[in-house]
């Protein structure tokens, strides 16, 4: 009996609830809100990415400027060093320290066994570019191998 | 009622907003897709957000054979004013008028200009630029509006050291650095690298790394900085001691053709070529032509020995004069030496004897040998502005029969100092002339390349070279070039005293004194030419250039670590 009455009264309430004018408006508002939320989330993602890109761009600009300044400073230091090492300056310092040019008869030659005497003066150009050491090359190879292995296994999988 | 009114008004406001938004959207669409506006706004945006420019590489540096820096890059500044950004004119005026050679009203006029940028000074030294930056950083003065733009400066730390050999760098009309003369001129493209045209983007979203230009290649030269300094100091001392007007010294390795030192006087400082421009920036060692005089006799004798026309013992009766092609040729002392052999001819430097030898050779053989020695042609040394010299040949409109006689002792023929050194180096190097060169190697990025030595020619046989080598050493020990001797070392060489040609003949009083020598005779490792123009103390090369040679070589053997002959023989025997 009670169940029958509940059923009897529930149906009109549900219908009234469904047909209430404010409910239609609420649905529209919810739809709009959800849309706005989605747009906001997408926008925030976009904003985050854009701000990161802008930050990276600024960093790049700053690093390029720093590179230019450092290159200039390097050039200035190199020129200064060359000036300090100029022959004329070295000669003056040597003379001030009491040195003087040696004559051939003041030089004593000492025989060193197994020392290869070469009459020809052939001095190779000095290498100033550092080359990769075997250790560095090995580390680079290890890193490449690990990176490739990681790509094949996928994230979270242990090799 | 009230509610309805509110709704109506709200809708009107909403419609208003919608209309504005629609306008904005329409305008956006018009701007973005309208045919002419797109171009206009895109250009405007590009103009503001990016800068189209050339990314210039830094010019390659130049080192000597031991890696000592000879030429490098430094910076200087272009100083300008951006009037809209000058906030405290007094600070700017006072600072710049103090630091620059510029009056306060001139600076003030620049600040008052209605232009966006006014160039004040270019170039401004690095020291002044650094001082302006320091004052700006201190914060006591407001120097806003001063623009300092770095511009590259070629720096020669040694000043005048090897100036004519290195050349210099100047700006062309496009504002680019260009090398002139010497190594800078010859290897300009290699040193300059290659600039890249690209965009410098200002908007952070669009920023990309700057395009990388091909950097200039670093060069390693064959010269030894210490040898070069010795050569220059010796030359400057000789110019002063003998009252010469100018001069040249070249030191070369005859075995390889490597130029170890090369200097001429007067010289200049390439750091200040603008403020103190040289009268002639060319390198006289490769560009200057002169009549070599008696040093040339080495080549004539080489041709005679090599062709079998004479031997060292061939007799000759020197009467003091000889007629060749209608011209009477005399000895340097206008006397006759009687019966001599070829060794004696070289010892006493007899013009008459050498002219006779040339007639025995005949013009065809004589000039074939001279051409084989490279006379009349550039040596192709890697230095800019080389001259070919002048060797008149039979058939040329200005060649006469008498030229055969005068050419034999170095008159009527023009050579450059390097040409003479290269030709005579064949005698020192067993008959083989090596290509003279100044570049030992290059370094481009991470890779290095050494220059390969090349044979320039083999004008005489090794046996002839060995024979003449001994003849020239003996004649030096017994002849008029004895002031060139170096204690402890056996040296071969020949003096030269040449008249200076004028359009109508020769200068009556002045001469060019020279000496070309090499050693040690049994293992030649250097060949040296000393040439002094118009020495006032003596006209004779034997009294001016020969002692300079000796003085130079006594120091040169120390720098090149060549022991005295007896020590060297002992060391070689020990090995």
Write the layout of secondary structure elements.
The complex is a heterodimer of chains A (159) and B (575).
Chain A: H1 2-19, H2 21-84, H3 87-96, H4 134-153
Chain B: H1 2-33, H2 35-49, E1 50-55, E2 62-63, E3 69-81, H3 89-99, H4 104-111, E4 118-124, H5 126-138, E5 146-155, H6 163-166, E6 168-171, E7 177-180, H7 182-186, H8 188-192, E8 196-201, E9 218-221, H9 225-241, E10 246-252, E11 259-265, H10 284-287, H11 297-306, E12 315-318, E13 321-324, E14 327-330, E15 338-341, H12 342-347, H13 351-372, H14 401-408, H15 417-428, E16 433-434, E17 439-444, E18 447-450, E19 455-457, H16 462-478, E20 492-502, E21 505-519, E22 526-533, H17 545-559, H18 565-574
Parallel strand pairs in B: 2-9
Antiparallel strand pairs in B: 1-8, 2-3, 3-4, 3-5, 6-7, 9-17, 10-11, 10-22, 12-15, 13-14, 16-19, 17-18, 20-21, 21-22
Helix pairs in contact in B: 1-2, 3-4, 9-17, 11-13, 11-16, 13-14
The low-confidence parts of chain A are: 119-140, 150-159
Helix content of chain A: over 70%
Shape of chain A: rod-shaped
Determine the most extensive contact between two protein chains: A-B, 48 and 64 residues
What proportion strand of chain A?
A: under 5%
Q: Which structural class is indicated by helix and strand composition of chain A? A: mainly alpha
Assembly form of the protein: heterodimer
* Helix fraction bin of chain B: 25-40%
pLDDT averaged residue by residue of chain A: 73
Characterize the structure shown.
The complex is a heterodimer of chains A (159) and B (575). Chain A is rod-shaped. By secondary structure, chain A is an all-alpha fold. Chain A has four helices and no strands. In chain A, 70% of the residues lie in helices and 0% in strands. With 575 residues, chain B is an alpha+beta fold. Helices cover 37% and strands 23% of the residues of chain B. In chain B, the strands form seven sheets. In chain B, strands 2, 3, 4, 5, 9, 17 and 18 form a seven-stranded mixed β-sheet that branches. A five-stranded antiparallel β-sheet of chain B has the order 11-10-22-21-20, with helices on both faces. Chain B has a two-stranded antiparallel ribbon with strand order 1-8. Chains A and B meet through helix 2 and helix 3 of A and strand 3, helix 9, strand 17, helix 17 and helix 18 of B.
């Amino acid at each position: 009996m009670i169940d029958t009455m509940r059923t009897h009264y529930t149906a009109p309430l549900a219908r009234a609830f469904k047909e209430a004018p404010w409910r239609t408006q609420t649905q529209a508002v919810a739809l709009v809100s959800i849309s706005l939320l989605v747009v906001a989330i997408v926008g925030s993602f976009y904003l985050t990415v854009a701000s990161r890109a802008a930050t990276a761009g600024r960093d790049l600009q700053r690093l390029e400027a720093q590179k230019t300044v450092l290159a200039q400073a390097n050039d200035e230091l190199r020129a200064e060093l060359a000036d300090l090492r100029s022959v004329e300056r070295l000669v003056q310092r040597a003379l001030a320290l009491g040195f003087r040019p040696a004559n051939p008869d003041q030089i004593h030659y000492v025989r060193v066994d197994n020392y290869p005497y070469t009459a020809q003066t052939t001095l190779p150009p000095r290498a100033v570019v550092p080359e990769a050491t075997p250790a560095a090359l090995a580390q680079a190879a290890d890193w490449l191998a690990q990176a490739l292995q990681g790509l094949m296994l996928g994230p979270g999988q242990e090799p | 009622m009230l509610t309805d009114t509110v709704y109506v008004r709200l809708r009107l406001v909403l419609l208003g907003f919608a209309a504005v938004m629609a306008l904005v959207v329409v305008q956006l669409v018009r701007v973005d897709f309208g045919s002419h506006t797109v171009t206009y706004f895109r250009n405007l945006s590009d103009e503001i957000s990016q800068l189209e420019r050339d990314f210039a590489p830094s010019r390659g540096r130049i080192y000597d054979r031991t890696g000592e820096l000879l030429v490098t890059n430094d910076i200087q500044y272009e100083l300008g004013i951006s009037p809209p950004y000058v906030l405290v004119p007094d600070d700017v005026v006072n600072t710049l008028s103090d630091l620059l050679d510029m009056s306060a009203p001139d600076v003030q006029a620049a600040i008052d200009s209605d232009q966006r940028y006014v160039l004040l000074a270019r170039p401004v030294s690095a020291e002044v630029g650094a001082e302006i930056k320091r004052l700006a950083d201190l914060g006591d003065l407001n120097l806003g509006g001063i623009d300092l733009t770095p511009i590259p400066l070629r720096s020669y730390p040694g000043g005048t050291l090897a100036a004519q050999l290195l050349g210099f760098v100047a700006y062309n009309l496009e504002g680019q650095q260009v090398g002139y003369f010497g190594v800078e001129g010859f290897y300009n493209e290699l040193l300059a690298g290659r600039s890249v045209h690209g965009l410098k983007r200002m908007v952070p979203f669009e920023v990309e790394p700057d395009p990388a230009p091909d950097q200039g290649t670093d060069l390693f030269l064959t010269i030894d900085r210490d040898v070069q300094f010795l050569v220059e100091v010796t030359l400057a001392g000789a110019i002063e001691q003998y009252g010469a007007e100018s001069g040249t010294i070249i030191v070369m390795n005859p075995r390889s053709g490597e130029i170890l030192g090369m200097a001429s006087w007067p010289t200049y400082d390439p750091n200040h070529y603008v403020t103190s421009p040289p009268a002639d920036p060319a390198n006289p060692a490769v560009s200057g032509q002169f009549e070599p005089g008696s040093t040339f006799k080495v080549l004539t004798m080489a041709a005679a020995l090599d062709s079998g026309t004479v031997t060292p013992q061939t007799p000759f009766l020197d009467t003091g004069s000889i007629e060749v092609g209608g011209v009477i040729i005399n000895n340097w002392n206008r006397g006759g030496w009687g019966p001599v052999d070829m060794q004696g001819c070289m010892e006493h430097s007899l013009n008459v004897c050498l002219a006779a030898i040339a007639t025995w050779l005949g013009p065809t053989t004589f000039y074939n040998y001279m051409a084989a020695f490279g006379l009349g042609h550039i040596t192709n040394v890697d230095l800019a502005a080389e001259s070919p010299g002048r060797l008149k040949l039979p058939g040329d409109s200005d060649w006469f029969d008498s030229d055969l006689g005068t050419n034999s002792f170095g008159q009527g023929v023009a050579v450059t100092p390097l040409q003479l050194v290269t030709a005579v180096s064949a005698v020192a190097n067993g008959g083989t002339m090596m290509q003279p060169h100044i570049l030992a190697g290059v370094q481009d990025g991470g890779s290095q390349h050494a220059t390969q030595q090349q044979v320039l020619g083999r004008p005489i046989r090794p046996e002839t070279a060995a024979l003449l080598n001994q003849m020239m050493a003996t004649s030096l020990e017994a002849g008029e070039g004895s002031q060139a001797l170096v204690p402890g070392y056996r040296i071969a060489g020949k003096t030269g005293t040449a008249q200076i040609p004028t359009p109508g003949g020769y200068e009556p009083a002045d001469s060019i004194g020279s000496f070309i020598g090499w050693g040690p005779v049994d293992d030649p490792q250097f060949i040296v030419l000393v040439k002094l123009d118009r020495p006032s103390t003596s006209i004779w090369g034997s009294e001016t250039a020969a002692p300079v040679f000796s003085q130079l070589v006594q120091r040169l053997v120390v720098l090149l670590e060549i022991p005295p002959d007896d020590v060297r023989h002992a060391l070689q025997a020990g090995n």
